[in-house]
Write a structure and sequence with these properties.
six-stranded parallel sheet, 25% helix, 17 strands, 26% strand, binds zinc ion, 12 helices, alpha/beta, zinc, alcohol dehydrogenase (NADP+) activity, 2 domains, Rossmann fold, metal-binding
């Protein structure tokens, strides 16, 4: 039997999020039913709902940084039981058979993964709906376990912002002593600083704003470079092993390529648009530099980043909100007015229903 759910949905690109009642699917044998406790607020939620990427489907309940409590499991579920505290990130299904899926890299599924919201379900073609809601039903393969003792509120954003920055640092082999630059100091950037630092790297934060120097150092950056200061940029030529570029809008990456040593790697995790200004081939060719990209992380690695953060005491800096503050939070997020992630306390949706 499908179960009634309450969420906040966008019904068009122009309308604010508003309360919406819908149905969660009848659980399948491999499904985990989850009562949502917290949901992080990611920039992608806003981009998707406002159709900035031309891929929106309505109505849409956004949210893909979900932490909750298991309420029931299907007969085939082996990893979870009622009462477990679990997480759901950006994916809820994939083909499960291609090379990527077989390697635990479901984010690169040859058929495209099923997004937590706004994707047609692979079995019944209904639209998936995300975590700005009181419950969710997800196949156990796409559920992760929250480690014992981790702070659940501030762990929610690890399911997107955390894994997005952790996966490339691991894949490209960042190790103690490496010099890592992190470009941008938003939700992704501040996690990149913390994670690179925990991996033993010497971390430099690149920001355009003088006002972020002190807070970047508080987050664990060893150095801060003001990227608009030509003198500071010239002083770091050929000194970095890696650049983790979290900037989601077009920007000139040539100065950052020149800050890499020979064989250095520049990793894009935020930019989906064409690179503009263009990259000079010479900036790659003359020093055998690598320009790379990376998307979230697979399910095994999503579990791994949670364990890593629990072990190293790493959490996301969050500002808690109630569900009825979500539109205001989106406005503030768009202005960059958040340190560094909003997280919705989903108990507030029950209180709202009771009222
Ligand atoms: Zn996200
Ligand atoms: Zn696949």
């Amino acid at each position: 039997m499908s179960t009634p759910a309450k969420g906040y949905a966008a019904h068009s690109a122009e309308t604010p999020l508003a309360p919406w009642s819908f149905e969660r699917r009848t659980p399948r044998p491999d499904d985990v039913s989850i009562e949502i406790m917290y949901c992080g607020v990611c920039h992608s939620d806003l981009h998707f709902a406002r159709d900035d990427w031309g891929m929106a489907a309505y109505p849409v309940v956004p949210g893909h940084e979900i932490v909750g409590r298991v309420t029931a499991v299907g007969d085939d579920v082996t990893k979870y039981k009622a009462g477990d505290i679990v997480g759901v990130g950006c994916m809820v299904d994939s083909c499960r058979q291609c090379n990527s899926c077989s390697s635990g890299l479901e984010q690169y599924c040859a058929e495209g993964f099923t997004m937590t919201y706004g994707s047609p379900d692979r079995h019944d073609n209904t639209l998936t709906q995300g975590g700005y809601s009181d419950s969710v039903v997800v196949s156990e393969r796409f559920v992760v376990r929250m480690p014992e003792g981790i702070d659940l509120k501030s762990a929610a954003p690890l399911l997107c912002a955390g894994i997005t920055t952790y996966s490339p640092l691991k894949h490209y082999g960042v190790k103690p002593g490496d010099k890592v630059g992190v470009i941008g100091m938003g939700g992704l950037g501040h996690m990149g600083v913390k994670l690179a630092s925990a991996l033993g790297a010497e971390v430099t934060l690149f920001t355009r704003s003088e006002s972020k120097v002190a807070e970047a150092k508080e987050q664990g950056a060893d150095h801060v470079v003001i990227s608009t200061d030509d003198e500071q940029m010239a002083a770091i030529t050929e000194t970095f092993d890696f650049m983790l570029d979290t900037v989601p809008v077009q920007h000139d990456i040539n100065p950052y390529l020149n800050a890499l040593k020979p064989d250095g790697t520049h990793i894009l995790v935020g930019l989906l648009e064409p690179i503009d200004p263009a990259v000079s081939g010479a900036n790659l060719v003359f020093r055998r530099r690598v320009l790379a990209g990376s998307l979230i992380g697979g399910m095994p690695e999503t579990q791994e980043v949670l364990e890593f953060c629990a072990e190293h005491g790493i959490t996301c800096d969050v500002e808690m909100i109630n569900i009825d503050q979500i539109n205001e939070a989106w406005d503030r997020m768009q202005k960059g007015d958040v340190r560094y992630r909003f997280v919705i306390d989903m108990a507030s949706i029950k209180e709202e229903n009771a009222a």
